[in-house]
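Hi there, hope your week has been kind to you so far. For a while now I've been wondering how a particular protein folds. I'm sending you its amino acid sequence along with the C-alpha cells. Could you read through the record and tell me how the C-alpha cells relate to the sequence? Take your time with it, there's no hurry, and the full record follows here.
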Amino acid sequence: MLSLPSEGAARAAAAELSTMGHRLTAVRVHDHFRFVPSSFWYGRPSMDPELEGWWQVFSLAVYSGYERMALEPFFRSERMRVAGVARAHCGFQQGGSEGHASTLEGVFTRDGLVHDQPGAEVALPTPLPEDPARPPGGPPWNCGGVGEPTAVVQAVVAVAERLYGSTEGAPDAVGWLLDEEFASGEPYGSTGEFLGDLANAVAHQGTCTDTTVEAVPFLIELVCDDSIAPGSRLVLLNDLSRLAATGPAAAVSLSDRITALGGAWEESAAEYLTRRAIGSELPRLLSRWEDESDAVRFSLAALAALCGAHDQRVRSGLAALPAPAASSRADVVSLMAALLSDGQEGLLSALDRLSSWLPSIAEKAASPNVDPQSLGLAILPNLVLEDLGLLG
C-alpha cells in the first residue's frame, strides 16, 4: 500500500507497479470506505487525518517457484524498490502483507481498480540474490545467570518496597509488584517471563508514556542492586537502551512519511523525557564502570551513546572490550565510538560496514530521508542484544 498526495501521483505510481508485473492495482482516495454508505466506516472520523485529501495505491504482486525463505533477499530488494516508487511520486510506502496468492487475489478490493493483468507474476532474477556473509563474532561473553524466577521476583519486590513502601506511592508500572494479588499469584515458570512482564508494564509494546518516565528511577535502582542476578541486571540495562532508542527508531520508520508530508521529526514528550531521565541517572551507572563485567560495560557504552553522554571512561573503555578486528562485534563497537564522537565521517563508515553484512540495516538506510544519526541510535540496542545472545 502506497500513499500519494494526489490522484495523478497515485495513478502514475500504480502504472509503474503494473509495469513491474503486479497483477492487480487499485487507486482510491484515502479513507475510501468512509464515503461508501454500505461500509462500517461510513461517516466515521478518519483514523489518519493528516492524510485527508491524499490517495492510496493497493497492489498485488505474485511470485512463485521457490520456497519462501529462499526469496527473502529478493523480497527485501522489492520492498526497497516499491518504497522508491512511492518516494519518486512524493509519497511513501505505508505497509504491506504476505499470503497465498489465491487467497489475496480473492479478497483484493476491486474498488478503483486501474490495472488488471490476470495470471501476471513478477519475474524473478536468475540466480536469486543471497544474503551477504556475516563476519565472525567476538569471543563469548560472561553474562552471568539470570537467577531463579522466585529469587529474582523477591529481589525486585524488595527494591520496590524500599523505594515506595506501598502501591499508593509507586508509579503505575511498579504498583502491581506490591499488590496482594501479585504476591499470592502463581509463581513464574522462568525469569525471562517475569522480566518480560516487567518491561511491558513499564513500556507497553515498547511505547514510552508518562508511566515510563516515572518508572526509570526504579529500573536504574534494579540495575544498581547487587541482589539482582547479574544476567537479569544485564537484561534490565538493555531494556533501558531500548527505551532510550524509542524516539530515533520512530524517526527512522516514519522518515519517508514525514518528508512526504513536509514536516520535521519531533520526539513525543514521553520519548524525550524518558531518554532525559535515563541520561540523568547515567553517571550513577557509569560510576561502577571499573567493577562491572565486560558484558555490562558493552551495554553501558551503548546506553551512553544513546543518551549522548561524552564520558571519557566509556570512550577509552571501548578499546579494552574483547572485539577482534574484522569481527561483527568490532563493527558494533565502531558504531558506538562514532555515536560518542562529534563527527559524521566515522558514523557513515560504521553504518556502511554494518549494512554490508546486515541486510535489515541496508534496507533502512536505503531511504535518502533517513538521518544517519537516528539510524545509528535506532539499530544499536538490537545489535548489542544480539551480540550478547539476549535477543529473543
